[in-house]
Amino acid sequence: MNKRIVYLDHAATTPLAPEVLEVMLPYFSLQAGNPSSIHQLGRAALHALDDAREQVALVLGCTRREVIFTSGGSEGANLALKGVALAQRARGRGAHLIVSAIEHHAVLHAAEALQTLGFELTLLPVDRNGLVQPSDLQTALRPDTVLVSVMYANNEVGSIQPIPALGAICRAAGVFFHSDAVQAAGALPLDVETLHVDLLSLTGHKCYGPKGVGVLYARRGIPLQPQINGGGQERRRRAGTENVPGIVGFAAALSQAEAQRGAASQRLSHLRDHLITKVLGTIPDSWLNGDPTQRLPNNANLGFAGIEGESLLLLLDQVGICASSGSACTSGSLEPSHVLVAMGLTPEAANGSVRFTLGQTTTSDEVAYLLEVLPPMIARLREVSQ
Ligand SMILES: *Cc1c(COP(=O)(O)O)cnc(C)c1O
Questions:
Q1: d(CA 254, CA 251)
Q2: Which residues form a coiled coil (predicted)?
């Protein structure tokens, strides 16, 4: 049996960094107070919470009160979209939303849920490389638009959107702008002023932090209707006893990812480019999905004519390589990725695509191993599908 595990699915989740686990541990046991309690253990927890908030604010270039701790990327996106949309409609500001066609389901499905509540939704198209054109956003804006949401970097194809330009358009139109920056943490700058964003969501487990914790940045004064009602935590914007160990871990992970961003991006983009060049050079009828340059440093989404990506994933899994495809198996039928379809790929080409996402522990040996096993696998799959 092959014992070797090569994890090339860092866009799905990342392992917890050992340093992050270390700072979390006391808050599970010795320091397990509730930040709302007035006794010394409560005060210690509140202090840890304040420190974590300060660390996050430093990375985002915002104030502490603009940081809302959440349970992750999905909650952040839901709070941003529903929170702003419902608050704006209640103030008579209209009921039109714009989101890109390649958003994560956390944003897409939150927008669709708002549709059932009477909101109108415009999906922004993307080009062949998965990029939103600022002029398309300009055209889609209406007097009754209350919120625009465009992700910073796409989780499937790694394309990086022109967020500062899109944000400037929204600001000029007086429309609030949210960006799902989950995949950007540790790879791209997160300064909210430079990005011209009013809301930005992050999650711990995509940047070597814990699962089940994240942040929504919400610019001061932005109308936001809470989506979880209860106690007065997070300045009445998100009720519930704070996940203190998670929050402490999130802040440590985000700070570490930001500190290592330059060096990590350089190393990973080098490995990524080697992988892409070799695959395209040695495997006939293969292609790269997503933009060749406006792309996350760790993402290689590759397509192979005449194969099912799902079958390739199974073969890779047999030799210990963990990768992923955008397709979701819904009730037995293979639904092509909505991202690849929005980019203009045929359902067959979309289903022939596989995503490899590298990470902190990925070595050039591991990439070499993938490059060794991949060509015969593709050849074998093409043979059986003849
Ligand atoms: C993973 C992911 C999310 C969801 O984050 P969770 O913390 O798993 O809820 C949202 N957006 C993008 C782009 C993601 O990759």
A1: 5
A2: none
- Tell me what pLDDT residue 385 has: 80
Query: Please, which pLDDT band fits residue 3 given cuts at 50, 70 and 90?
Result: confident
Distance CA 152, CA 103 (A): 10
Same domain, 141 and 212: yes
Boundary-marking domain end, from 259, 276, 311 = 259
What phi and psi, each to the nearest 5 degrees, are found at residue 247?
Answer: -65, -45
Question: What gap in Å lies between CA 296 and CA 161, rounded to an integer?
Answer: 11
Q: Write the pLDDT tens digit of every residue in 49-101.
A: 999 999 999 999 999 999 999 999 999 999 999 999 999 999 999 999 999 99
> Structure pTM?
0.97
Q: Are residues 190 and 107 in the same domain?
A: yes
Q: Which atom of ligand 1 is nearest to the CA of 153?
A: 13
Closest C-alpha among 76, 70, 143, 85 to residue 103: 76
Give alpha helix (H) positions in 227-287: 233-236, 244-259, 261-282
Domain-terminating residue out of 259, 291, 325 = 259
- Indicate which residues carry an active-site annotation: 329
Nearest protein Cα to ligand 1, atom 6: 73
Round the average pLDDT of the chain to a whole number and report it.
96
Nearest atom within ligand 1 for CA of residue 205: 7
In degrees and rounded to multiples of 5, residue 332 shows phi and psi of 85, -20
